[in-house]
Amino acid sequence: MTAITKPITREIIDDFAKEIREKRRKTVKPSKEVINFRTDVVDGVERDVWRVPIEILRYRKDNGRIASDVLDYERNVGVLDERDDYAQGETRKFLEQKDPERTAVLINSIKHAGQQEPAIITCDGFLINGNRRKMVMDKLHQEDPSNDNFGYMKVVILPGKDDEGGPPTLLEIEKIENRYQLQSDGKSEYYGFDRALSIKRKIELGFSLKEQLRDDPHFAGATKAKLEKAIREHTKNYLKPLECVDRYLKQFGRDGLYRTISAGMSDREGRWQAFIDYSNTYTRYFNDPKHLIEYGIAEDEIGAIEESAFDVIRLRAVPDMPKVHVIMRNLAKYCRTKEGKKAIKKIAEEVDPVLPTEEHVTDDGRGLAIPEIDAKWAARNKRSIIYHLKKASRSHETLKEKETPLELLEAALKKLTHDDMDVGALGTTDFAKARELVVSIKTRADELENEIYHYRKEFKKLKLKKT
Amino acid sequence: MIHVLTENNRLVIRAEQGDLAPRHQSQLAYWGFQFDTSSGRFVAPPGDAEPLAQKVTAYLGSCGCSYQAEATVQSSLAKHEAAESSLAAALVAGLDLKSGSFVTDHFKTNHQRSNQNQPVISLSL
Q: Helix %, strand %, coil % for chain A, to 5?
C-alpha cells in the first residue's frame, strides 16, 4: 500500500447518509456529548446524540479488532464490500468469534443496563466505535424484537459533506479508532496480533507509530525519552513479530492468511506468542554480531535456522518439550553447540514447507481446509522435527551440565541457604545421617578453602615476581 | 536461474519460482532484502552493494544454487577477489618477513601491482 501524502476523505454513500438523516431521532438524554474528534475536547465542542435504528447502522471492516480476520478473508476469498449484506454478515461473524468471553460480559451488561456510551458513526452509518455493541444489540433484538431498547443505538454522527469541517479523512477515522479502541483502558483491549496488524495499517495510511502513541492517553505529556521507549517497546512487541509472521506465511506459501496464526485471545493454540519470542531471539542474538560470535553462529546460517524455527512453530506442540514459545526463546541456546546447531539446521533440510498439490485434496476430489492440510503436514514431518529438536535440546542440556567451579560453589551455597533447609523438619531417624552429611560438607568446604587460599597465594607471588 | 544485479546502487536478486528455498529467502531478509511483490524480486537497501554482493554470491555458491551475476556485479566481485588475494599475499609476506625468510620473488612490489591495475595493499612493517 502506498503512503498517503495528502489527506484522503472517506467516500460517503449518499443513499445511506440520506436514510440516516431521515430516520434519526433526537430523543436521547443527555442530548449532547463531547467526543475525541479533531479539536472537540480542547474546544469543548458538544455534538448531538441521536437514536438511530440498528438495522441502518453498518459494521466497518477496517476495525482493528478483526484486522487479522478481514485481511485473511480478503486474501483467501475476496474483497469484502461493506455495502452489501453478505459482507456485513461476515464481519458480524468475525466479531462474534473474536472474543466470546468478553462478548458474554457485554451481552449481560447491555441486557441489564442498556447501551451506556454513545457509539460514533460516519454520516452514512458506518460504525467507527461501537461495532461490538451493535453485534450484541442485534443479537438481543433478534431474541426480543418487541424490545425497542435493543432496536436503536445512541450515536454521535460525524460531519457529512455539507456540515462544518466536512467529512473525516481516512486518517481522522483511524485516529478516532485509536483513541477509543486501541487504548488499553481495561474495557476493550485488542488482542496483540490484531493490534499489531492495526498499528501496521495505520502506519501505511500515514499515521506514524509516534503519532499513534502520542494520541494515547497513557503517553499524554510523556517526555521525549518516555515516548522513544514506548516506540521501541511497540516495535519489539508488535511490529517486529509481525515481520516474522509475514516471513512465516511466505515460507508456507500462505501470504496474508493471518487467521492461520491465531484466531484471537480465545485461541489457546495460537502462535502469536511464539512469534514474539522468536522475534526477540532474532533481535537479541541473530542481529547482534557479538552474540553470533559467542554462540558460534555464522551470519549465513540464520536463513536455515529461521526456516527450521518456522517449521517448529507450525507443528505447534512437541511432546516432552516446553511450549513452542519457550523453545523459540531458547533457540539461540540450542544452536550454541555444534551438534545442536547441526540438528536445528537439519529440520530445514528434511522438511518440505509445502505438501505436493495432489495432497491438498481428498480421494474424492474435495479440497482440504487449512487445518486439515496442517494436520497432514504435521503427520508427515513431526518425526523429523521432534527428533532433531530433541537432539539440539539434549546437546544444550549437556553443555549446561558442564559447569564451572564457581557456578558449582554458588549452586551449593544456594542449596545450603535454601528456605526449605529447616533442620527442625528432619525426621528423628534422619538425625545421624544428616549430621554425617553436614560434617562431610564442612570437611570438603575446608579443603576447598585451603586449596583456594593456596592458589591465591601462588598467584600473588607470581605477580610480585613480574613487577 | 537466479540473477544477481544492481539497480541504483541497490543489489537486486531475481529468481524464478522455486529457485530460492525458504531458508534462502530468510537469509536474504536477514541481509535486509525486501521482497517486492509487484516485480517479484528481492531488493536490498541502498548502500554499498559490493560487500553484500560478495556475501550473497558466496552464500548462493555454498548452497549449490546456480546464479548469474550481471557485468557490473561481476566486475565488483573481481575487484573484491583481487583485493582479497592481494591481502592474502601481503599477510604471507608479512609472516615471512617476521620469520626472516622473506623472498622478494614471492611478493610483487606495490609498484608492480599498481602497474597491473590491481588493488594495492600497503605494508607498513
A: 65, 5, 30
Task: Say whether residue B24 is in contact with chain A using an 8 A CB cutoff.
Answer: yes
Distance from the B122 Cα atom to the nearest Cα atom in chain A, whole angstroms: 29
Tell me which DSSP letter residue A126 carries. B
**Which chain A residues touch B23 with a CB distance below 8 Å?**
303-304, 306-307, 348
Say which residues have a Cβ less than 8 Å from residue B66's Cβ, sequence separation at least 6. Answer: B1, B2
Residue from A85, A86, A93, A89 nearest A69 by CA: A93
pLDDT tens, chain A, 467 aa long: 555 556 788 889 999 999 999 999 998 889 999 999 999 999 999 999 999 999 999 999 998 889 999 999 998 899 999 999 999 999 999 999 888 888 898 999 999 999 999 999 999 999 999 999 999 999 999 999 988 889 999 999 999 999 999 999 999 999 998 888 755 443 445 678 988 999 999 999 899 999 999 888 778 788 999 999 999 999 999 999 999 999 999 999 999 999 899 877 667 667 999 999 999 999 999 999 999 998 999 999 999 999 999 999 999 999 999 999 999 999 999 999 999 999 999 999 999 999 998 899 988 888 999 999 999 999 999 999 999 999 999 999 887 777 788 888 988 998 899 888 888 888 888 888 999 999 999 999 999 999 999 999 988 888 777 66
Contact A302 B27 (CB under 8 A): yes
Interface of A with B (CB under 8 A): 247, 250-251, 286, 299-300, 302-304, 306-307, 310, 348, 353
Q: How many CB pairs under 8 A join A and B?
A: 43
Is pTM, for the whole model, over 0.90?
A: no
Grid cell in block for residue A61: 471492516
Nearest to A303 among B27, B35, B58 (CB): B27
ipTM over 0.90? The verdict is: no
Task: Enumerate residues 64 to 123 of chain B having a beta carbon within 8 A of any beta carbon in chain A.
Answer: none
